[in-house]
Amino acid sequence: MKPAAFDFIRAGSVTEASRHLKDADGGARVVAGGQSLGPMLNLRLARPGLLIDITGIPELTEISATDDVVTIGACVSTANIEDGRLPGRGLEPLAAIAANIAYRAVRNRGTIGGSLCHADPAADWGTTLCALGAEYLISGTNGKRRLPADQFMIGAYENALAVDEVLEAISIPRLSLNGTWGYHKVCRKAGEFALAMGAILHDPDRNVFRAVIGAIQGRPIVVADAHELQRSDRTLDEDAVIRVLERHGITNTLVCRQQFAALSRAYVQAKIQ
Amino acid sequence: MVKYGIGASVPRKEDDRFLRGRGQYVGDFRLAGMREVAFVRSPVAHARLKHLHIPEQFRGAVFTAADLAGVKPIISAPPLKGFKHSAEPILATDKVRYVGEMVAMCVAATRAEAEDIAGTVTLDLDELPAVTDMLAACEPGSSLVHEDWGDNIFVEFSENGSVAEAARSAAIKVSKTIRTARHCMFPMEGRGVVAYRDTRLRNLTLITSTQFPNSVQTGLCECLGLTHGNIRVISPDVGGGFGYKGLLCREEVALGWLAMQMNYPVRWLEDCREHLAANANCREHHYHITGYATADGKLLGIECVGHVDAGAYSSYPVSSSVEAAQIANLLPGPYVFSGYRCRALAVATNKCPIIPYRGVARSGVCLAIEAVMDAIAHEARLEPHEVRLRNMVRPEQMPFDNILGKHFDSGDHPECLRRAVEAIGVQKIRERQKRPEVDGRKIGVGISFFVEQGAHGTSVLASWGRPIVPGYEQAQMKLTADGEVEIHVGTHSHGQGHETTYAQVAHEILGVDIDMIKVVQGDTLHTPYSTATWGSRSMVHGGGAVARASRIMAKRVGQIGAWLLQTDPDKVRVADGKVIFGDSSVTLREVARVWYLQPQNLPANVDAGGLDITAGYRAERDSGTFTYAAHAAVVAVDTATGLVEILDYVVVEDGGTLVNPMIVDGQICGGTAQGIGTCLYEAMPFDAQGQPLASTMIDYMLPGATEVPNIRVLHMQTPSPYTEFGIKGLGEGGAVGPPAAIVSAVNDALRPLDAEVFDLPLTPERILAAIEAAAHQQGTPR
C-alpha cells in the first residue's frame, strides 16, 4: 500500500494550478488535506503523474462575509468550521455538520473543498450544502464561473469541474432569524460513512423549504419545494418520500425505510410542525 | 496476600514502554543493508496458474515457485483417521486456491519499489469455478479445491449418541439455523518478518511477530530442511495476536529461504490491504441445531450438524481440524442432559486457511446452544435464565464429568448466572418493556452462559488432532549476583502482561521486589521450547512452571541462607526477598553473592546446580481448566433503521484464582469488544467468484470506542483443585459470550414483532429484513 511514483508541485496561485492541470490534461490531481486522495493513492486506485498542492494559495483559506452570505475558501479545514471560525449569525448548521464528519484528526486536515470535489455520495458536505442552497465558485484557464451546489456533483466520485478547473470557494446564504434546519444521518458506526442521509432547510422569510436525500450512491436528491412532501397536517408524508425515491431508481424497501427515517428525523429537528 | 503477589492489581510493567512509544516491534528493527519484500498475490480465488510474465529488467528481483525448488510446502496433518492432507506451497505452483495467495516475491530497496515491481508481473490464469459456500461445497458435483480428494471435506467429527429417546418424549422441540461470518482478526500490529543469516552464530535468524516462536522454528526446519540448532526465531514485542499470529506463515518460509540465498537482511511488513484481501481467516460457521426439552424446560437432547469454512489449506501447527473438533466436543456447553448427537465438518473452500481466533469455535458454539436454550424458554413460557438454571451443574456436584466426559473442575454456575441476572436487572427491563420508549426504539435483554475450557493439556489436543501437541512447560530461573530474578519462559505474551504476572507469581513465593524480577521471552536461542501462548494456557502452564522454579529456587537459597544463618534448612523460610530464621535474616542478594563470588562460604553439601534452575510443569489433570461466565446485555433496536445500541453490558466471570484482577478485567473487556464486533459489525463477505468484498476499513467495520459500552465486570473466584494456586485460563472468554448475549437481547427486543435473526453480523439490513419478513407472514401492513 505505497503510492506509485508521482511528481509534486506546490502551486502559488489558482492560475498556476489551472495551468498545470491543463498541461497535464487529466494526468494531474489537486491535493489539499489528502484525506480523500491519500488513501486512493496508497491503494493505487489513483495514479496521477503529478500532484498539485494548493494549500499554499492564500485566497483559498480566506473567509469573507456579508450580511447575507459567507464565502469560505475551498482549503478551509473542516476543523476550523467546527470550531466556529465563520463570522456572524445564521451559520449554526455548518459547525454542527462539521463536528460529525469522520474524526477530529481527519477534520484537522480535510478541507471543505476537497470533500466536495471528491464527491463521495455518502460524504456530509455534498448533501448538506445542497440543502443550504450553496453556490460554488470555480476558476479555470477560461475564467471563473459559479455553479449551484446541486449541479456540482454529477455522480459518485464525479464532479462538474473541467480538467483545468479548481474549486476556489463556497458561498453559503445565512439562515434568516426564523429559519430552521435539520440533518440526520444513519451510521452504523460513529465517524463512518452514512447509509442514509436527510437534510431539511426551512426559511420562510427567504421563501426556501428544501429537502435533500443523500448517501444514494449517486448525486443527492434535491426536493426544491418540500411542501410536496408534507401532509395537510404538516407532517412528513412517507408515501410522498417513497415516491421521490422510486422516481430516482431507489426501490429497495429496506433502503427506503432507512432513508425515510433519516429525512423524518431531520424534519423533526427542523421543528416545522 | 503478599503485596505484589497473586491477587494484586499491579500496574503492568510492560506498559511503561508501550505507552511511551518505546516498544520494540518487528517494524522497529533497522538492519544495515535490509531490503524490502512485496508479494504478487493471486487476484482470483480458483485458477490454474499457467505462466508468470516477469519483465526482463526485474528478473533478478522476482522469485517464484521455480526458484524455491527444494523448499517443502506447508503440511499440517493431524494424525486423525480420514483427515485429508493439503500441501500449501510457499509460492503457488500450478494452481491458486484463494484470493491473496502468494505467487511471487519481489525484492527492492524500498517497499514502494517492491510494489512497483510486483505491479509489472502478470499472471496467465485459467479460472475455475470457486468454492465459496461451505454447504454447497459438500454437495456432489461441487468444484473441488483439491482435485485428488474427491470431495471438499478435510475431516468430519461425530458424537454418535442417541437422541431418539429425547425426541420421542420431548414436549418441546426447537430448531435453529445459525450462520457466522468470516472475520479478519485485525490486531493493531499486522504480521511482519525480518530474516537474515547470522554469520557469527551460524544460523538463519528470523525476527517475526509471532505468538509461537518454537512452532515457527519447527515448521521452518520442515520446510527449509534445516535443523533446530540452525534456526533462531525471535519474537519481539507483539502488538496483538488473538490467534492471528499463531501459525507458520508462508511469508516466514519465503523470507527465510530468501535470506539464505542473499547476504543481506530482508523484510516484509503486512499492510492493511493484505490483511483484508488475503487474511480474512476465522469464525465462519454454520449450524443446524435442534433441542429437545420437557414442557418445563428440562433439556433432554441436542442434535446438530455443524460446518466450518476451513479455507483452502490446513494451517500449521493448529491444522484445519481443531475448530470442527471443538464444535462436536464443546457444543453441550455447561448443561446436563443425556441425548447428544453431532456431526461437524471442516470444509475446504477457496478462501484463505482458517486459523483459530480468540475463543475458537466456542464463540459460535455458545451462540448455537444458547439460541436453543432461549427458544426452549420461549416455548416453555419461562425466562431464559430460568431454563439455564434448570439445566446447570449444581455446585455440590463439582467436580463434574459432562456428557462427553469433560471434567468441570470447580465452580458455582447457578450463582454466577443469578448475579448476572441481578446486575443487568432483568426484572427492571421487563417492567420497562411494558411501556413504549419515547424515541420509539424497542428494548431487549439477553443473557448467555458458557464454560471456557482452557489450558488444555496433552491428551485433549492430541484427541483434537493438533499436529504439535503441548507437553510439559518449562521455566528457566536464575538469581543474579545482585539478587535479581531473571525468568526465561517459552510462552509469548502479546498483550497478556506476562512480564508482570509471572513476576507476581515469583514474588508470591520469593518475595523479591517486582521491579527486580525480569521475564525474558521470545527467543528460541534463549528460551525453553514451548508451544507458547494460545488457548488460554500461559498462566496455568507457564505460571505453573514459574511457580515450580520459584519453589526450587527457594529451597536452593534456603539451603545456603540457612548455612549463613547457622541453622538447618528446614528451620528457615523464604519471604520478602530474604532467608529468615527467627529475628535474623540474610537477603537473597547476600546469598547470591556468596554463591557467585565467595563459594568458600558455601555449605559443603550445597546443590551444585546453584541459582540457575530449569523447572517443568504440567497441570495435575490434563483435561484443562474450566472458567465460566455469564454475559448479559440490554439493547435498544431502532426498528426504522435497523441500528442496534448496547445500553448496558454485564459480565460475571469466575476465572479461578486471579493473579492480576486488573489485567483480567482488561482481557475480559477486550474480548467482549471483539465479541461485539463479531455480533454486530464484522464480516468479510465473498462474492460468487470468491472475491473478498470488504476491501478497506470503510467496509470492514471494527467496533470502536463509541460502539463498545462501559462493560461492568463482576468476579467470582473458585480455585481449580488441579493447578498452581488454583489458577485457570481465561483469556478468551470475553470473546465467547457476547454474540449469544446480544443475539438473545436483540431477539428479545424483536419478539413483539415476531421477528428474529441468527445470521451474524446483525446488520441493519438483516434486522429490517427480519421485521419485514415477519410482517409479511402476519399480513400486517407497515
Instruction: Tell me the radius of gyration of chain A.
Output: 19 Å
> How many DSSP H or I helices of chain A?
9
Alpha plus pi helix count of chain B:
18
The H-and-E topology of chain A, N to C, reads as EHEHEEEHHHHHEEEEEEEEEHH
According to DSSP, the number of beta strands of chain B is 30
Any overview of this molecule?
The complex is a heterodimer of chains A (273) and B (782). Chain A has nine helices and 14 strands. By secondary structure, chain A is an alpha+beta fold. Chain A has a five-stranded antiparallel beta sheet. A four-stranded antiparallel beta sheet of chain A has the order 11-12-13-14, with helices on both faces. In chain A, a hairpin with a 4-residue loop joins strand 12 and strand 13. Chain A is globular. The mean pLDDT of chain A is 96. Chain B is of the alpha+beta class. In chain B, the strands form eight sheets. Chain B has a seven-stranded mixed beta sheet, sandwiched between helices. A five-stranded mixed beta sheet of chain B has the order 9-17-16-15-10. The mean pLDDT of chain B is 96. Chain A binds chain B through residues 1-5, 39, 43-44, 186, 188-193, 195-196, 253-254, 257-258, 260-262, and chain B through 110-112, 115-116, 119, 271-273, 638, 640-643, 681, 695-696, 698, 701, 703-704, 706-707, 763-765, 768-769, 772.
